[in-house]
Amino acid sequence: MSSSQVCVFGTSSDPPTSLLGHAGIVSYLASTGLFSSLIVVPVYRHMFETKRDRATAHGESSSFAHKLAMCELQFSSLGTDTCSVTVSDVERRIFNEKAVRQSDPASIRVGTLDLLTNLTSATPLADFHICLGADSYRDLATGKWFGGLAIR
Questions:
Q1: How far is CA 30 from its chain centroid?
Q2: Which of 30, 36, 69, 91 is at a distance of 20 to 30 A from 101, taking alpha carbons?
Q3: Span 74-112, pLDDT tens digits
Q4: Domains of the chain
Q5: Are β-strands 127-131 and 5-11 bridged in parallel, bridged antiparallel, or unpaired?
Q6: Which secondary-structure segment (H or E) carries 81?
Q7: Residue 61 and residue 141: Cα distance in Å, rounded?
Q8: Exposure string (b/e) for 111-125, b if CB count within 10 Å is 16 or more?
Q9: Residues 6 or more apart from 81 whose CB is under 8 A from it?
Q10: DSSP for 7-70, written as a single string
């Protein structure tokens, strides 16, 4: 049995941008024929505090529900005949699962490894791939990601 090829596109998307930005990346990935599905995962709470601060320094960041709705409007129609595009709140669900086990919500971190572990356990026959922007790739390559070496 062949496995499905799934691309995960994690994004701050606050707000999601047009075909010259986020939507262009999603549209391109869906059109390559490499993936049977693409999952857009808006960031629930940024892993790095400095990036959380930067998001709010330029104005109030959107509520997650609003960000999720904006992403659904921007990305859900970008699927093709061979590649579906969905927007997922999986990062929020993982955060909430961790919150049940931890007493300090401020210390909760949800990383890419958590995300891939969750998705893999839910869909064990899929091969997952991640799409990174330049800033995220730099952080991964310089060892800033928790569990980054386990992501291959």
A1: 15
A2: 69
A3: 999 999 999 999 999 999 999 988 888 887 777 788 888
A4: 5-150 (3.40.50.620)
A5: parallel
A6: none
A7: 28
A8: bbebbbebbeeeeee
A9: none
A10: EEEEE--SSPP-TTTHHHHHHHHHHSSS-SEEEEEE-SS-SSHHHHHHHHHTSPPPPHHHHHHH
